[in-house]
Amino acid sequence: MIAGLQMIEKQIHQKIVDELNKIGLLYRIFIRIKNESSINEKIERKSKEGEPYAENGKKIQDIIGVRIVTYFKDDVNVVKEILNNKFKFIDEEIDELELTVFKPKRTNIICQFDENQIQILEEVSSASKNFNFNLIDKTFELQLRTMLSEGWHEIDHSLRYKCTEDWTKHKESERLLNGIYASLETNDIALKNLFHELSYKHFKSKNWQALLRNKFRLQFQLSDLNVELLNKLNEDNSIGKKIVKIDRTEFLLKLSNLDLSLPVNFNNLLYLLNLIEIKNDEISRITPEIIKTIHRNSQEI
């Protein structure tokens, strides 16, 4: 059983890593397979809660669980949109923001295994003597969190969600736990705004490399902007102004759609920024042909 599930787990992990690393996103990924004791515990708990699993009804959908933790709040949606094009989303729990209430915001998505993975699962199921295997769905769960909220969610899941009776007569303590989450959510917003403001300060001081780093917040390789690009930016301030105004999320999603095999560095980013958004003729003239070809091919699809 475990070997077959590990094969599926490895495929899912690699697919996600390939897509997110392609654009240099800052994130951490955690993936696990539910063990037999955890499966049995969940079946028993759901039965006690009056929502039992059934072979012809609701099944366990997170035999494999994936959690992606982003450094920044706005990257949660970036990851969701990128992976929506790579996996089949069949259900989701995404909490709407309430203006007057602070509470945990879930971004939990159920994804269908692909045809090859379903076949592997069926082979595992037929060979398994685990009587609960008929209660397991052909799906995995994808959870998206920010770095600041991740620790809170782990504590909440282990020490509140799985033992709600501990909290029934302690509403003030429960309110305080939610208040801690509220402060983390506020800090998530403040962190994004801080880097937005910092990127503008670097634009004003013509610190172009720092502008790109703090505007796009990616895992850049350690190589500096070349002299030609620096000269173009220094000569034409409107290029930097356009960079400041670019919608980061929209650009990253466009970048993810390219058939990229390029290092994530300042030079390549600026070449692609120019081809996709800025469209400065002087920068286009010095752009390597391979980058132009990648962009051109994406336009033809």
Care to describe what's here?
- By secondary structure, the protein is α+β, with helices and mostly antiparallel strands.
- It contains 13 helices and five strands.
- It has helices at 2-22, 36-48, 75-84, 115-127, 147-159, 171-204, 208-216, 227-235, 237-245, 248-256, 266-278, 281-286, 289-300, and strands at 27-33, 64-70, 88-94, 107-112, 139-146.
- A five-stranded mixed β-sheet has the order 1-2-5-4-3.
- Helix 6 (171-204) runs antiparallel to helix 7 (208-216).
- The radius of gyration is 23 Å and the shape is flat.
- The mean pLDDT is 91.
Per DSSP, the total helix count is: 13
Q: How many domains? A: 2
Assembly type of the chains comes to single chain
- Counting helices, strands and paired strands, the structural category is alpha+beta
The major sheet is characterized as: 5 strands, mixed
In the CATH scheme, the class of the largest domain would be: Alpha Beta
Q: How would you describe the shape?
A: flat
Question: Helix amount, in percent?
Answer: 55-70%
CATH superfamily of the largest domain: Beta Polymerase, domain 2
Kindly report the average pLDDT value. 91
Gap between N and C termini: 40 Å
CATH topology of the largest domain: Beta Polymerase, domain 2
Radius of gyration: 23 Å
Poorly predicted regions = none
Helix-strand sequence: HEHEHEEHEHHHHHHHHH
**Record field, number of beta strands:** 5
Widest sheet: strand ordering: 1-2-5-4-3
Strand content: 5-15%
CATH hierarchy: architecture of the largest domain: 2-Layer Sandwich
